[in-house]
Specification:
4-stranded mixed β-sheet; about 20% strand; globular
């Protein structure tokens, strides 16, 4: 997690993202950090468990950072997210649409 925090701070220093955006990302990292690992049996018993992530990007650069110890997914920028069975799908929002966040649960 330290590397992700350092990367966010470097982006703020470089001017790639604003200080407010950096603070929001750092806060999201803190809230996403598990305090204790969830038991595998409990996670596997839920019907809405995500086993894989699918990212659909039609243009531009996409950076995906995977960490098997983290049980959440975060997407920055205009996108839509929905769950299709055991797959969490993130789709890039076309430029012609208003930039917004939308999350659809089954």
């Amino acid at each position: 997690m330290q590397d992700l925090q350092r990367e966010i701070l470097n982006q703020v220093v470089a001017g790639t993202i604003s200080a407010e955006e950096g603070a929001a990302r750092l806060e999201a990292l803190d809230s996403a950090a598990p305090t204790t690992p969830a038991p595998a049996a409990a996670a596997g018993s839920r019907s809405d468990v995500v086993k894989q992530v699918k990212v659909m990007s039609r243009f531009g650069n996409t950076e995906i950072i995977g960490d098997p110890t983290v049980a959440t997914a975060v997407a920055d920028g205009p996108h839509r997210a929905h769950q299709d069975g055991d797959t969490m799908v993130f789709e890039q929002t076309p430029v012609s649409e208003d930039p917004s966040f939308e999350f659809v649960r089954p």
